[in-house]
Amino acid sequence: MASRGGPRAAGTDGSDFQHRERVASHYQMSVALKSEIKKLIYTHVGIWLLLMAQMCVGHLKLLPHDQVAMPYQWEYPYLLSILPSLLGLLSFPRNNISYLVLSMISTGLFSVAPLIYGAMEMFPMAQQLYRHGKAYRFIFGFSAVSVMYLVVLVAAQVHGWQLYYSKKLLDSWFTSTQEKKKK
């Protein structure tokens, strides 16, 4: 090749090495998707901590029930949703496909299913609030059902995107694995 200020090899302008300096696209995609999934996991941990705080305040009676309502039934199984996030984070360092698949399956079971159940559990109370304007549970002066539907909406989006990016990451890792087998 060429050295700085020294003679160049015959027949080259010194730029023929650039093709070797490009990172394969599936590696670039893997890094980008890991970054997005980490952001979603940290957002999920924030939601999880808020629900945990509400449960602790409700059960330990740190504040009156007119300020922070007792948790809904769907919130208890949703607490297990931290496990899929941890599995997802554990899959990243060595591109562990089995951990990522377990994370995706358990996200459906421990995250998405309780959210669906929660939307159904709170629907009669939301309907009563909408039709009659009466709410019986409150969180800092706001209707508990409105606040919790907002939480369900945000959490559903977080988990939906997490599953989507995890699937794309899994495809990226399979591409990498297939190329290694060809060599």
Automatic annotation (TrEMBL):
Keywords in alphabetical order: Endoplasmic reticulum, Membrane, Transmembrane, Transmembrane helix
Under the heading InterPro entries, the entry gives: Jagunal (IPR009787)
Question: Which residue positions does the secretion signal occupy?
Answer: none
Q: What Gene Ontology terms describe where this protein resides (cellular component)?
A: endoplasmic reticulum membrane
Name where it's found: Endoplasmic reticulum membrane
Membrane-topology descriptor:
Multi-pass membrane protein
Q: Does the keyword Endoplasmic reticulum apply?
A: yes
Q: Which family does it belong to?
A: Belongs to the jagunal family.
In its UniProt entry, what is this protein called?
Protein jagunal homolog 1
Q: Does the keyword Endoplasmic reticulum apply?
A: yes
Q: Name one GO biological process term.
A: endoplasmic reticulum organization
Q: Which residues cross the membrane?
A: 40-62, 99-118, 138-158
